Amino acid sequence: MSYKGSNGRKKSYVPDTLVYYRDGQSPCLFEVKHVEQLRENPVEYRLRFQAARAYAREQGWRFSTTTERSIRGITLDNITFLRQFLDPNREFQAEDLAFLTQAVNGPTTPRAIFASLPLARKGTLLPVFWYLVASGEIQLSLQERLSMDSAIWRTP
């Protein structure tokens, strides 16, 4: 999306993440900033956030900002863990992606999916699984510590 910056020039801006909720709430577009960043440049961020709020409203979404203070702990640990699987130089086999995506055909857990696989296959598929979680193909709660017993699902 674009907005007019504090210098009057058109600027481009992309919020951090779009969150979909299982309970039917409308999606929420989030921006995560360090408190210090907000203090150092309040006018510029106010303009960005106004543009994001208007865009979200047009889409039927909500918009919210948060700081590092509210995501410290488990959520930040989970995000940090998952980020490594989004390396653009890393490639996964299409068959592996399809296999895991299809394996999540309702609420389940990673343990249930991996239970019947041979050990070597588990080792190959585990990074693929976490990539699918990190990219949003497979969902789970980031507010709970990630484990092989985490509840997972896919949104059609």
Structure description:
With 156 residues, this protein is α+β, with helices and mostly antiparallel strands. Helix content is 44%, strand content 16%. The strands form three sheets. It has a three-stranded mixed beta sheet. β1 and β2 (10-12) form a beta hairpin. α5 (94-103) packs across α7.
List keywords for this structure.
156 residues; alpha+beta; two-stranded antiparallel ribbon; 7 helices
What would a concise description of this structure say?
Strand 3 (17-19) and strand 4 form a beta hairpin. The protein has helices at residues 35-40, 42-59, 68-71, 74-83, 94-103, 110-114, 119-134; strands spanning 2-4, 10-12, 17-19, 28-33, 62-67, 139-140, 152-153.
Task: Give the SSE layout.
Blueprint: E1 2-4, E2 10-12, E3 17-19, E4 28-33, H1 35-40, H2 42-59, E5 62-67, H3 68-71, H4 74-83, H5 94-103, H6 110-114, H7 119-134, E6 139-140, E7 152-153
Parallel strand pairs: 4-5
Antiparallel strand pairs: 1-2, 3-4, 6-7
Helix pairs in contact: 5-7
Percent range for helical residues? 40-55%
Alpha-beta classification:
alpha+beta
Net shape: elongated
Q: Give the strand content.
A: 15-25%
Order of helices and strands: EEEEHHEHHHHHEE
Number of strands: 7
Q: In angstroms, what separates the terminal alpha carbons?
A: 26 Å
What does the average pLDDT come to?
A: 90
Low-confidence stretches: none
Multimer state: single chain
Radius of gyration: 18 Å
What is the spatial order of strands in the main beta sheet?
3-4-5
The main β sheet shows up as:
3 strands, mixed
How large is the count of helical segments? 7
